[in-house]
Design a protein that fits this description.
Layout (H helix, E strand, L loop, with lengths): L1 E5 L5 H7 L3 H8 L9 H8 L10 E7 L4 E11 L4 E9 L8 H16 L4 E7 L3 H10 L2 E12 L2 E11 H13 L1
Parallel strand pairs: 4-5
Antiparallel strand pairs: 1-2, 2-3, 3-4, 5-7, 6-7
Length: 180
C-alpha cells in the first residue's frame, strides 16, 4: 500500500507546499525549523541523515504509484541506549483519514525495532491533536505524561503529550496481528 524511501531534494518542493503556516509548521516539526520552510533548511536536515549509523532517518512516504503522499522521521537515535524518536509526521491533505498514517507508522516502527534494534521509540504530540493521539494509541503507543505549555504559538501556549512504545510491546502486538 505504501513504502518509505529516503527523503531527498526532489521532495523539498512538495513538502514546503504542505506547510501553509507557522502554527502548522510547529505542529509538524516543533522548533526544528523556522517559517517559511526553505530548501536550505531541508538540505541541512538531511545532510547526515539516512546513512548507516545516522542519528536521523528522514523518509518520504510514497504510494503504489510512487506518488509522494507524506513524510516521517526517526531521529534522536541513541544506539547505546537503543532509543529513537518519531517526528515530523505529515500526510498531504488529500491523503488524510484514509489509513495511511497507521501504515507509515508500521513501516517506521518495523525499521526502528527490527532493522536498527531499538528498545524504545517515543514521540510527542500536542494535546489538542486528538485525532493523532487516538491514532497513536490504536497503533500501540502508551501515554507517558504531559509537558505543560512547552511552545508559545500565536500568543497561546501549547502542551505536549509524550508517548512511547517498547520493543516488547511491538513484538507482542506483532504476535497478535499474525494470529488474527
Amino acid at each position: 500500500m505504501i513504502a518509505l524511501r529516503p527523503f531527498s531534494k526532489k521532495d523539498f518542493k512538495q513538502l514546503m507546499e504542505w506547510i501553509p503556516s507557522e502554527s502548522f509548521m510547529v505542529q509538524w516539526s516543533g522548533s526544528s525549523f523556522s517559517f517559511p520552510l526553505t530548501p536550505r533548511q531541508l538540505k541541512h536536515y538531511i545532510r547526515y541523515a539516512n546513512e548507516d549509523g545516522a542519528s536521523t532517518y528522514a523518509f518520504s512516504v510514497i504510494d503504489d504509484n510512487e506518488q509522494l503522499i507524506g513524510h516521517i522521521s526517526l531521529a534522536h537515535i541513541d544506539y547505546y541506549h537503543k532509543t529513537g524518536r518519531i517526528g515530523r509526521v505529515l500526510l498531504g491533505e488529500k491523503y488524510r483519514g484514509k489509513g495511511f498514517c497507521s501504515h507509515m507508522f508500521e513501516k517506521v516502527l518495523a525499521f526502528g525495532f527490527e532493522e536498527l534494534g531499538l528498545h524504545r521509540i517515543s514521540l510527542g504530540v500536542f494535546d489538542f491533536n486528538e485525532r493523532a493521539i487516538q491514532s497513536y494509541e490504536r497503533i500501540g503507543f502508551t501515554r507517558e505524561g504531559l509537558l505543560r505549555d512547552v511552545r508559545l504559538v500565536d500568543g497561546q501556549y501549547w502542551s505536549l503529550i509524550e508517548m512511547s512504545m517498547l520493543e516488547s510491546e511491538w513484538a507482542q502486538r506483532d504476535v497478535h496481528q499474525k494470529s488474527s
